[in-house]
Structures are given as C-alpha cells and as structure tokens.
Amino acid sequence: MKRFLTVILSLFCASTLLAAEAPKPNILLIVADDLGWSDVGWHGGFGKTPHMDKLVREGIELDQHYVQPVCTPTRTALMSGRYPGRFGPHPVVPSNLRAMPLGTVTMASALKSLGYYTCQSGKWHLGARREWGPTAYGFDHGYGTLTGAADPWTHKYRKGNPYEDTWHRDGQRLDEEGNATELVAAEALRRIEEKKSPWFIYVPFHAVHTPVDSPEEYKRLYDGVKFHDDPKKHDSRLRMAAEVAQLDAKVGQFVQALEKTGQRANTLIIFTSDNGGIESVKNAYVGKVADSPLNSENDPLRGQKNTLYEGGVRVCAFANWPGKLAPGKFTTPMHAVDWLPTIAALAGYKPQGDLKWDGINQWPALTGAAVSREPRTIYIVMRNGEALRHGDWKLIHSNKGRVELFNLANDPYEQTDLAETHGAKVAELLKLLVAEQAQDNPNLPEDLVGLPK
Predict the structure, then answer these.
(1) pLDDT tens-digit readout, 238-275
(2) In angstroms, rounded to a whole number, what is the distance separating the alpha carbons of residues 256 and 54?
(3) pLDDT digits (tens, 9 = 90+) for 337-380
(4) Catalytic residues
(5) How far apart are CA 50 and CA 56, in angstroms?
(6) Helical residues (DSSP H) of 195-337, grouped into ranges
(7) By the 8 A CB rule, do 175 and 4 touch?
(8) What is residue 378's three-state secondary structure?
(9) Contact at 8 Å (CB) between 308 and 396?
(10) In the chain, fewer beta carbons within 10 Å around the N or the C end?
C-alpha cells in the first residue's frame, strides 16, 4: 500500500508540474525586404499601414533595431545569432552561395529540438541550391524563392542566371501563377491555421524589394494622391506605396487568423526589415515591371540600403505579444543577432556547448525586468567597410581608410563628423573594431570556390 501511494503521489506531482508549466509560445517572425524608415505610417511616411500601426501602438516599437546593410548578411544574423563575417567573406554581401555551414544551429533547428513545428515562406537567400534550402537548416517546410529576389508575377530571378528558376516548395522546383506577396502570405496563413503548436513560422517577404508591383486593389487605396509631377516617378512611388499597403494587409490577415484560431494570446509577433530602403533602382529581374526611379524613403535618417549610415542599418521594427510585452518604445540599441538568443531563452532552449553567439538575450530588457547600463557594442560589416556602435558613439570605417565618428545621442541623423576633434574616441573604437574583425573568417570555404555567386 505504501508503494502504491508513493506511485500515486509521484504521478500527481508530475501532472501538477506539467499543468503549471506555461505552454511554449508560438513565434511569428516577419521580415520585410528593403523597407525604408519613412515608408510606413508609424513613422509618418507615405505608405498606408493601419494594421502594423496598431501592432506598434499596442506592442513595443523597436526604435533602435540594427541589421546589416543588405539582405543575405541580415538573414544570416537572424538565423544564426552570429555576425555574418564569422562564416566567411561571402555572407557579408548578397550571395547565392551557402551562407552557413550545414549543421549550424539556427533559430529553426534550435526550436525544432524543443518540439516546435517550423515553417518558412518567402525569400530564403541563404543558399540558392536545393541542398542549401530551409529544410537543410531545421525547417520542416520551406516555400518561395531560394535566391535573393524575384519578379512578383513571373517569380523568376535574373535573366541568364543559373538560378533564374528559383520558386520552390521544400526544395522542389515549382511553377505557380499569382502575385508573390499573396502566395507567400497564403502559405503562412495555412501554416498558422494548422495550429500545430508550438510553432515557428518565418515569413521573409519579397515585398518591397524591386521589382516593385502589386495587385490593382492596393493601388486604388491611393486614388487622388499625386506623388510627383513626373509621371514615371509618380507611378514608381504609387507602386511602392501600394506594395507597402499590401504588406500591411497581409500582416493584418495573420493577426486575424491568430485571433480566429485562438492562438493570439500565445504568439509573439516580431517584425523587422532586412535593411533600409533603396531610393531609386532599376529592375534587373525577368518580367515586365518598370524601373523604380522614386522608390523608398529613409528620411530623416541619413543613407539608404547598402550604406553604413543609419538609413541603411537602422530599420522599422516592432514586437507584439498581448499581456507579455507592455506598449512602449524600446530605445536600447539591439541587433538582428539578438533574436536567436532571446527566443532561445524564451522557449527554454539550452545550447550544448558554446555556439559563439554574438547576440544577447534581450527579453529581460524588453519586458522591463532588467535594464542594462553597460554600453553595447554592435558590429556591422559590408564589402566596402565596417561600422561599430558602442554606447552612443558610432564609428564608420571605409576600406580606403576614411573614418567618420558620430554621437548618435546628440546627432541621430549623422550630420556632424567628429573624427577630427575626438581622436581618443576614434582610437578607442578602432581598437574595438579590430577585436571584432579578428573573429571574422577571411576565407571562402573550399567547397564553394568557383560556384556561381
């Protein structure tokens, strides 16, 4: 009888602990492509974004959210928690090569090890071959393009490129009709509605990357608006504004689906752009969409995509989780590398060994449970140079040896270069920069040598 009672008591305690344990949160990670700082409503921009504006009001606006200045590097940082240069020289530029070694612990593989259902829908750009696709890095399913971008109607990459036909499902070549943004959103909605909790759904939209176009219903939202006297520039900005509105509508559909299926209360929504907007761009993709001579807007930030100024690397971002994240503006500098350590801690993932994450767990700071007073070093590298932010100071160093220094607390729009008058601060930050550079891998992996980039 004593043994029987012990067994019953043990079972009761175990069931009580399980009942008390909070369910693991669903993670919806949405990445816009080339979205400019002033493209959105919550920054007073020209785009109509009522759904995202509401998520910002009711969630946390990530006011100083940093990324890399172009696409592949930011996606590498998001998925790995490491700065892209750690893997070699190729992930610091837009590339169709395999960005990370196979076997790298990613956000998807970490969550999958905890029982998460993992899906990706949209632009991959971390390796254009099927064996380098999402399912090789922890995703149960992958859909969209393996390359960096595609025409929104033909779904093709650049003409004559070996990866021109890039649309796929789980690595298998796929031909579909329809608008890319609509298709990507429909796939994500289907996965949300499957309710295979806990889940991680990663939606890296092609919107608003060139070629910029969307269905007519989104253009009609701007009837009567004159964006420019030049007809071509008016049409260009209209197409951009329409695609911003389309992106917003899709985010609104995700929220509606979460509410309808009873999953909203247990879903963390994260939104970011992969880099700043590009203000004027030609269309190099297979299709009939026109060039974009008047495209994104990054004002009042200086610079744009493919630059190290704030307009290239500080982006539109927010997080929303009702009851878990109080509304407000988070002004602590953070970087895309922070999301893997943050989500890992939130979900209860414990790495086996040192994964050499460059990111830090921001959850205590986001929830207000802790405030970090130590200055954070953020390291951003690209083909032509590097930037380093440490506390309020930002150093930009070009490969030609030019150095610029800004105090972002006093000069957030980088109007006054202080390098000549603050030599000691320049020397201090250059020392930190050299330490970061020493951790990068300068060598292209041997098995990638000679492959199409």
Answers:
(1) 999 999 999 999 999 999 999 999 999 999 999 999 99
(2) 13
(3) 999 999 999 999 999 999 999 999 999 999 988 776 678 899 99
(4) 71, 125
(5) 10
(6) 216-219, 231-260, 310-313
(7) no
(8) strand
(9) yes
(10) N
